[in-house]
Amino acid sequence: MNRTDMIQRLASETFDLLVVGGGITGAGIAREAALRGLKVGLVEANDFAYATSSRSTKLIHGGLRYLKNFEFRLVRDSVVERQNLLVMAPHLVKATTFLFPVYEGDPDPLWMLHIGLTLYDWFAGRSNPIPHRMLKPGPLREREPWLRADQLKGGALYADCRTDDGRLTLEVIQSAAGHGAAVANYVRLTAFRKDGSGRIVGATVQDQLTGSTFDVRASRVVAAAGPWADAVRRLDDPGAPALLRLTKGIHLVVPHSRLPIQHAVVMRGRDGRMMFAVPSGNCTYIGTTDTDHRGDPAAFSITPEDVDYVVDAARRLFPETGLTSEDIIAGWSGFRPLLKPEKEADPSAASRDYKLFHSPSGLVTVGGGKLTAFRSMASHIVDEVFPATRSSAHLAASTAPLPGAQGGLPDEQLKGRLAAEIGGAGDLVDLLADRYGAALAQVAAEARSIASPDPELRWRLAQARHAVKAEMAVHLLDVVRRRTDLMLFTKHNGRPYLPALADEMGALLGWTEERKQAEIAAAEREMDAMFAWKQVSAR
Asked: pTM score, two decimals?
């Protein structure tokens, strides 16, 4: 994961496949192709998992609500892949108990929920961690006492999984690189290279850090650019029709003490659509919205209307908490690159499946897709683009553990020893173990060499060092927003640590004092943007 070496390889080698896009879909395709012995390059215009792949609901799930749309294959594939990911990344993908309360007048009555969850369990087979149970109102509220009692008909207890989507994407990228792929972030596609017959034979790209432009030679190019898929296609064919329907989803974070749930809980918006409240360490996050977005895919924003919709749902389900917008300590916004339907439909009814689009030039564009099913989706895509590599023999390699799950996960004894040796509260060490898995030993080695009376700062600086050395972090925002939990899941958003983190990164990356201050300012602008809706509301 040395970026300088990767850039040199991209500029000098000839690849069987160039992947454009470093989200979970592009990462999965690069890994799958590299596992099959293909020479693979990958370029990402921003940071890995910059957009959709770090801005989801952070769930690995079958998509229970997709059964209502009769998307049985999508749900089955997702449930199977959920079980695969529990083995591939047990530190990042955690089996989680969900509660699904049903109230008088809800669109999904208890009998329908029971049928859907029975199918869910059947798809999972014997590996299902928690077969579903239907519950009456009393037992349901025993498990979650804060649930509204009025008109509660009952509900269900079932299993799905939660994850850190950005770090999962990063580990897939690391796995691709470990199998020979040349991967680089902050390298923007500017044009396609074509031969005399108009076939794509590579791309012209620009290193966003240095401004230098170079060509990448490749026999095939797959665009896995998420919300930017249409923009990439139009670099090939300016008249290409739009493939995507972007819908915006926002999530809000509150202290767990303000919404002290013990399970992930299905919520409903005032319009009846499903959302979630998910406990995450010292926080609980709630969401998501599903509204159409037209315009710049980089225009991430949270509006007062978004906040009102999500907080209203949480307040109606958990009225005794008295939750308000003042409780919000963080939030994020992202876009789903859904396939554009032939007929207009409710955003929540739009398919989460994917489709490949083949251009006359040879460009292959991925539209749609789902985080949970990234591995199987990547396998099918490489099958189609490189049919000679198709073989069931690759399944074992494809479902092998990701880097953080190789070599054994940290046990309680190790975590206790590290907490005693380096310092830090037990919940912080638990958090780090879940984020890094087997790589926690590398982070701990960095922490041992850092002299600070503040044990949490030692760990945070060690994370920054590790992010630069092993995870291709090049900006301060890469660390606080995607490599760590600081921005989204701490009450201070990491602000107190910004100068020290910038000093640590600057020492490794050769930053001037002016550059360090610019990096701090950029991180603070991003943090301020999370709360821009407050200024709008105050007008």
From this structure: 0.96
Single-letter amino acid, residue 494: G
- 68-88, pLDDT tens digit by residue? 777 888 888 998 999 999 999
With residues binned 3-state (H G I as helix, E B as strand, rest as coil), the percentages for the chain, rounded to 5, are 45, 20, 30
In the chain, where the domains are located = 3-53+166-243+351-398, 94-162+245-338, 408-534
Q: At residue 152, what are phi and psi to the nearest 5 degrees?
A: -75, 120
C-alpha 17/C-alpha 224 separation (Å) is: 12
Q: How far apart (Å, rounded) are the C-alpha atoms in residues 424 and 428?
A: 6
Pairwise CA distance, residues 496 & 494, whole Å = 6
Q: DSSP class of residue 424?
A: -
**Alpha-carbon distance 147 to 102, whole Å?**
11
* Dist. CA 470–CA 483, nearest whole Å: 11
CA 364, 368, 370, 373 torsion: positive or negative? negative
Q: Which CATH number fits domain 3-53+166-243+351-398: 3.10.100.10, 3.50.50.60, 3.90.1150.10, 3.30.429.10?
A: 3.50.50.60
Q: What are phi and psi of 23, to 5 degrees?
A: -85, -170
Alpha carbon separation from 246 to 241, 252, 340, 350, 380 (Å, rounded): 15, 20, 8, 10, 24
Domain 408-534 class in CATH: mainly alpha
Q: What is the 3-state secondary structure (H, E, C) of 379-410?
A: HHHHHHHCHHHCCHHHHHHHCCCCHHHCCCCC
pLDDT in tens, 219-250: 999 999 999 999 999 999 999 999 999 999 99
What is the DSSP secondary-structure string of 296-356?
A: -TT-----HHHHHHHHHHHHHHSGGG---GGG--EEEEEEEEEEPPSS---GGGS---EEE
